[in-house]
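Figure 6 in text form: structure in, sequence out.
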C-alpha cells in the first residue's frame, strides 16, 4: 500500500490539472462508475470490445462509462423501482462474511443480481421478472453493479440505510457516510473521467492483475464488508473527519475502483 501513495498524489495533481484545463465537468456521483467502466473498457479483449460496442449501440449509449451510470439514472422512475434492492446487500451488524446461499433472503440483492445478469449476458435461457432480461440491459446492470459491490457501504446495514442516515462532515462540509464513500473520497476536484481513467489504468501493475483475479463475487462482497466494519469501528462519535481521513482512505477507494474495473473486464471477457 505504501508504494501507492506517491502515485495517488501524482494522480490527484493530474486531476487538478485536467479539471483546470478541461471545460468538461461531470456529476461527481457518477464519477466512480465511469472510472470503473473506463478501466474495464481499456482492459477487455478486442473481441469483447466489439460485442460490448454492439450492445451499447442497442441501448443508445456512446461509451461503456456512460452506460454504467444508467442504473442510477433510471432509479427513480416508477417502472424501474423494483430494481432498487439490486444495488446493495444488507447484513446483520454482527456478520463478518456473506452467507453463500440465499444471501438476499426473500428479495433480490446485488449478489444474486450479478449472477443473474451474467447469465442473461451469456445468453442463458432465463426470464425471471424480478430482473431485466435483455442482453443490452444486462450489460448496463452488470457494469454498474460490479462497481457498487466494490464500494464498501453497498455491503452494509439496513438500520441506517447503508450509512445514508449517518451524518458526517469532511473538512467542515456536511455529507453522510454513504455519500462520503460513494463520492467525496474519490477526488478533491471533479476531473475529466477519460483522462482520470487513463491515468488510473496506467498505474495497474501485472502483479495487481494477478492478485485481483478472484472471480467469486461473494469474496468481492466479503472484502467490502471487512472495509465497512473497519469504517464503522473508526468513525468518531461527532462524525467530524479531517484531512487525514481523506489522505488515508482515498487510496482505499482508488484501489477498489481499479479492482472493480479489472474484475468487470475479466467477467465480460468470460461471457462475451
Ligand atoms: Zn448503484
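Output sequence:
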Amino acid at each position: 500500500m505504501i508504494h501507492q501513495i506517491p502515485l495517488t498524489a501524482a494522480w490527484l495533481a493530474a486531476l487538478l490539472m485536467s479539471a483546470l484545463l478541461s471545460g468538461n465537468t461531470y456529476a461527481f456521483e457518477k464519477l466512480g462508475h465511469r472510472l470503473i467502466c473506463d478501466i474495464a473498457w481499456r482492459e477487455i479483449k478486442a473481441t469483447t470490445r466489439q460485442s460490448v460496442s454492439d450492445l451499447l449501440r442497442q441501448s443508445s449509449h456512446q461509451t461503456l462509462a456512460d452506460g454504467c451510470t444508467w442504473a442510477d439514472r433510471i432509479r427513480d422512475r416508477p417502472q424501474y423501482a423494483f430494481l432498487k434492492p439490486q444495488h446493495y446487500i444488507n447484513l446483520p451488524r454482527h456478520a463478518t462474511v456473506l452467507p453463500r446461499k440465499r444471501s438476499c433472503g426473500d428479495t433480490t440483492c446485488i449478489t444474486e443480481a450479478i449472477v443473474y445478469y451474467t447469465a442473461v449476458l451469456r445468453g442463458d435461457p432465463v426470464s425471471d421478472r424480478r430482473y431485466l432480461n435483455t442482453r443490452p440491459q444486462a450489460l448496463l446492470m452488470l457494469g454498474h453493479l460490479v462497481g457498487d459491490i466494490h464500494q464498501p457501504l453497498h455491503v452494509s446495514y439496513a438500520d441506517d440505510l447503508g450509512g445514508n442516515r449517518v451524518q458526517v462532515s469532511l473538512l467542515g462540509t456536511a455529507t453522510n457516510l454513504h455519500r462520503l464513500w460513494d463520492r467525496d473520497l474519490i477526488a478533491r476536484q471533479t476531473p475529466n473521467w477519460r483522462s482520470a481513467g487513463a491515468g488510473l489504468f496506467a498505474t495497474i501493475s501485472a502483479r495487481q492483475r494477478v492478485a485481483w483475479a478472484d472471480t467469486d463475487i461473494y469474496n468481492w462482497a466479503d472484502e467490502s464488508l471487512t472495509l465497512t466494519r473497519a469504517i464503522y469501528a473508526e468513525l468518531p462519535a461527532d462524525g467530524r473527519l479531517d484531512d487525514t481521513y481523506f489522505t488515508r482512505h482515498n487510496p482505499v477507494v482508488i484501489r477498489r475502483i481499479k479492482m472493480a474495473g479489472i474484475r468487470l473486464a475479466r467477467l465480460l471477457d468470460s461471457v462475451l
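Caption detail: Confidence is low (pLDDT under 50) at residues 1-7, 13-28.
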